[in-house]
Specification:
Length: 421
C-alpha cells in the first residue's frame, strides 16, 4: 500500500485525468486552476523561465466550467484550452512538464475555485501516490499570477533543509505601478495588500501560533500532509483560508520569503470575496482608506492569550473568577461561547500544559478569532480606518516610521519585515 491509498478510498468521485507516465525523480507538482482567463500563457512563461531545481517538476492546469455559464466564458475557456495545449507542444522538457485538462458541466453547488483547486491537487496527490513519493510537494498557484525566477529553486532549498515541513506560505507582492492595468487599480491594491499585512501582523502581535498569510496562489504543502488533513475543500471562495488553517495545526509550518509570487491585482467577479471584489470596492469608494478591525480588539485578546497557563492550572471556580480579570469584550465573547465548559473539556483531555495549549488552539482557531473580532465590532469597537491602526500596530512592533505616512510607504515597511523574517 502507498501512503495516500486510504485518502483515495474516501474520494468516491475521484477520477484520473492525466494518463501520461510520471516523470522520473518527480518531487514538485504545481496546480493552477483556470476559469475565464485570457492570459494564462504569461503565468506558464514565468514558470518556464524559472531556474531549474535538481529534480523533476510537473504543472497541472485545471480549466473548469460550471454547468450553467455564459456563452462568452465557454468560448474563452475553450480558447484557453487550445492555447495551453499549443503552448505545451512548443515547450518540451522532461524535467519540467505541463499538463492541462478541461472539466465542464460542474454542478453549481460545488463549482468554484475550491473545487477546481481540489481537482488539480487530488490529481497531483494521485501521481505522487503512484510512485510512493510522500515527500512530494504540491504547490498552489493562480492562472493570473507570475513567479520570480528563483521560485522553484528557493522552495526546493527550503524543503531540502526542512524535510519535515507540512506547509509553507510563500512571500508575495502585488504590482503597485505600471501600464498592465488601469491606473485606479494600483492605489487600490496598495491599500488592500496593506490591509492583509496589518491583519497578519496583528495576529503575530497577539502571538497566535498560526499567523500566516492564506493566499491561494502562495503556498506549498507536502503530499503527506495534504492526504492526512483530508485534502482541499470545495468552497466557492476562501478555500485557501480553510484548508491552510487545517494544515497549520499539524505543525512544522513555515514562511518562505526568499522568493516571490506576483498575484494579479485585477478586478474580478470569479469569487464573492477576496482580492478582485475588494479592489473593485476600494475603487468604487474613490480609493479611500479601508475600514479594518480596531487594534484595541487585538490588544484585549493578547492579554487573554498570555494567561493560558492559568487556564490550565486553575479550577473551574477559579476560572469563573479569572473571567472578571479579562477585558470586557473578551469576557463577553467567552461567556457567549461557553468558555468554562470548553476549557474543562480540553483540560480533561490534556496531560500537560503543552498538550492543553495545542488543544486550546484547535478550539480557539483563526475562525474563532474572526468571530470574536466581528462580535467586538458590533458591541465595543467599531471598524476604523486602516492607516491609523497600521501606525498604532507599527508602534507596538517598534517598526521604523516612514517619512510619508501613506499606504505605499507603510506597505513597504511591512513588506521589508516579512522579507527579513
Amino acid at each position: 500500500m502507498s501512503f495516500a491509498d486510504f485518502y483515495f478510498k474516501r474520494q468516491k468521485s475521484f477520477e484520473v485525468r492525466i494518463n501520461e507516465s510520471i516523470t522520473e525523480g518527480l518531487k514538485y507538482i504545481i496546480v493552477i486552476p483556470c476559469y475565464n482567463e485570457d492570459n494564462i500563457v504569461e503565468t506558464l512563461n514565468s514558470i518556464w523561465n524559472c531556474q531549474r531545481p535538481p529534480f523533476a517538476v510537473e504543472v497541472i492546469i485545471v480549466i473548469n466550467e460550471p454547468e450553467t455559464v455564459d456563452e462568452q466564458i465557454k468560448k474563452q475557456n475553450s480558447k484557453t484550452y487550445s492555447e495551453v495545449q499549443h503552448w505545451i507542444k512548443s515547450h518540451s522538457d522532461i524535467a519540467l512538464r505541463f499538463f492541462v485538462f478541461y472539466v465542464q458541466n460542474i454542478p453549481l453547488k460545488i463549482a468554484g475555485a475550491g473545487y477546481a483547486r481540489k481537482l488539480g491537487m487530488d490529481e497531483a496527490l494521485y501521481r505522487f501516490n503512484q510512485i510512493a513519493q510522500e515527500e512530494g510537494v504540491i504547490l498552489s498557484l493562480d492562472a493570473d499570477a507570475k513567479v520570480a525566477s528563483n521560485y522553484l529553486t528557493e522552495i526546493g532549498k527550503h524543503f531540502a533543509q526542512n524535510p519535515r515541513t507540512n506547509v509553507a506560505t510563500i512571500y508575495f507582492e502585488h504590482p503597485l505601478s505600471g501600464n498592465e492595468y488601469s491606473s485606479p487599480i494600483y492605489p487600490a491594491i496598495t491599500i488592500y495588500e496593506l490591509y492583509l499585512r496589518y491583519y497578519k501582523h496583528a495576529f503575530q502581535f497577539i502571538r497566535f501560533p498560526y499567523s500566516y498569510y492564506t493566499v491561494g496562489s502562495c503556498f506549498a504543502v507536502s503530499a503527506k500532509a495534504y492526504a492526512k488533513q483530508g485534502g482541499m475543500n470545495s468552497k466557492q471562495a476562501g478555500e485557501d483560508f480553510y484548508f491552510l488553517h487545517k494544515v497549520f495545526q499539524l505543525g512544522h509550518s513555515y514562511e518562505i520569503n526568499t522568493t516571490c509570487v506576483y498575484p494579479s491585482p485585477r478586478i474580478s467577479n470569479r469569487v464573492p470575496f477576496g482580492t478582485g471584489p475588494m479592489v473593485e470596492q476600494i475603487i468604487q469608494s474613490g480609493n479611500r482608506d479601508l475600514l479594518t478591525y480596531d487594534l484595541r480588539a487585538f490588544i484585549d485578546l493578547k492579554f487573554f492569550l498570555q494567561n493560558l497557563s492559568q487556564l490550565y492550572n486553575n479550577s473551574c471556580e477559579e476560572l469563573n473568577d479569572l473571567m472578571y480579570e479579562f477585558p470586557l469584550p473578551v469576557a463577553d465573547f467567552l461567556h457567549e461561547n461557553h468558555f468554562s465548559t470548553v476549557i474543562e473539556e480540553i483540560k480533561q483531555n490534556s496531560s500537560s500544559l503543552n498538550s492543553f495549549t495545542k488543544r486550546f488552539y484547535v478550539w480557539f482557531n483563526a475562525f474563532q478569532i474572526l468571530k470574536y473580532l466581528n462580535a467586538t465590532t458590533e458591541k465595543y469597537y467599531r471598524k476604523t480606518e486602516l492607516l491609523p491602526e497600521v501606525e498604532k500596530l507599527a508602534e507596538k512592533l517598534k517598526l521604523p516610521v516612514p517619512e510619508s505616512k501613506n499606504h505605499q510607504s507603510w506597505l513597504e515597511v511591512f513588506r521589508k519585515v516579512d522579507r527579513d523574517f
